[in-house]
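User: Run a structure prediction on this.
Assistant: Running it now.
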Amino acid sequence: METDEFERFFPMNYWKFIRQDWPLICFGFVAAFMTGPGQTFFIGIFRDSFSGAYGLTLGEFGQFYSAVSLVSAAVFLWSGKLIDQWSLQKVTTVFVLVFAASAFLMAGSFHLVVMVLALFGVRHLGQGLMGHISSTTMARYFVHNRAKAISLAALGYAVSEAIVPILAVSLLNFAGWRLSWVIVGAILLGAGLPLALWLLKANRRDLSLEREQETPDAVSSGADQTVAVRDYTRGEVLRDWRFWCIIPAHISSSYFLTGVFLNQASLADELGITMQAIALCFTGFAAANMVGTVLIGPIVDRFGYLRTYPICYLGYVGSIFFLIGAEGFWGGLLFYSFVGFSLGLAMPAAGSLWPELYGVRHLGAIRSMIVAFFVLSTGLAPASFGYLIDRGWEVRQIAVYGALYAVVAWGLLGLFTVMELRKERALTSA
């Protein structure tokens, strides 16, 4: 392999890319990091506090959590399109303000109905829209280095997963759950929003919504190349058979891991470890996720999503099988690390897939639909997991069925890959 070819693969070539576009990349990182308080791994730490405060069983809390997530999925079909209609500055400001308000509402909720409304806001803005801003921005404004951009921004998720659970456990122990949510809102307003807006102001790229799609990437080896992809509408995507082959794999981890993370106290009991140990396992998850994310970016940019996504997803399938037999702290740490590494590999490949298949002009609307599927799957997990756990099932028993589903989803993804590679070869040979 020639030296310049080696550098194209080697992660150190990130540095030239970062120097060129660090403000927008850092913006994607910050938006991804701010998803933490809305993610199940954070809210799951407060599960017992919520259940105790409002007299709920674990199954009942799971039902409320599912209902909130299902409503969020429906609303996302509207709210997710705003990124196609508003400037990044406006959409970021509005979303973070509502996110912080939801955190304050959670802290002051003294009735079940108010808590459920706050939970909706935290989930919809945190788990949904903040990640939507990060992923859509990276996919829309980068072309030849799209997977690298998604990889770097996605490190925000990993850093959040490494830091936020430990902070949450500490806050819960020393400040109580209500004050913890006050602190979350204050951090979003006092640090998250100002930093995000400053990075957008420092950005060097054209962020107008009217920009042409066929724009050379400013960091693409100096070549005046363009990328022409037909822009699909959301309706056209729904009528495309390829979408229905991809989406089962795309949402499988969101369903299963939501159920696991929300019930991590139950998993800790099964493994015979403490919640503090589970928080440490999340550090392993985050570290492995970062490694996988950084390694895969240049490979996806070089070989494309077709040759990488099915292989990356196979690692996730293997991690579920590993959980079935996991025991003790080391078993938990290895599972969290294995699944974190696998998801780190899959995210840049999956993030590159949608704009390369369907274009970027309607990317916000298309991704809002995809995220709605994602949120819908997370909404089904709490109720189903809670129902089974209330009836004596272990999380590791549920994992058996999660593994079977993942195998079927991988088969559909493989069918899509084979058909697309055949089409690619036919076009090449023509």
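Residues 212-228 have pLDDT under 50 and may be disordered.
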